[in-house]
Amino acid sequence: MTGGSLLNTYYKLREIGLTRNKTDFAIHLLGRGKTFLRDIEHRRGREGISVPMKTIVRLRTYLRRLADRLPNGALRRQVEAIIHGIDRDLAVAERLAR
Asked: Which tens digits make up the pLDDT trace of 26-82?
């Protein structure tokens, strides 16, 4: 997953109310330092930045557990769509790495 994709994921989660800001996202959902996302955002070539796999796994695991606890409905579908997007980004990154 690239830095740009991670930023897009953050914006989607903020839009549906699952994170308040970049610091909250970085600390609580990614397990990273408070400036992790801002550092990516302000870095040139962020589309080429590869996000560490442990960070992606933590985010995806959090979202999967959340989706499993949500009742069927719009919010659950939105979270599952974000998970699907993460999976798609990982598949593309894997193909490009070959």
From this structure: 999 999 999 999 999 888 766 678 899 999 999 999 999 999 999 999 999 999 999
Cα(94)–Cα(97) distance, integer angstroms:
5
Could you give the CA distance from residue 36 to residue 74 in angstroms, rounded to a whole number?
Answer: 30
Q: Rounded CA gap, 87 and 27, in Å?
A: 22
6, burial (CB in 10 Å: exposed 0-12, middle 13-18, buried 19+): buried
Map tokens 């193909």 to a residue: 95
End-to-end Cα spacing for the chain: 15
**Predicted confidence (pLDDT) at residue 16 exceeds the cutoff of 90:** yes
pTM of the model: 0.90
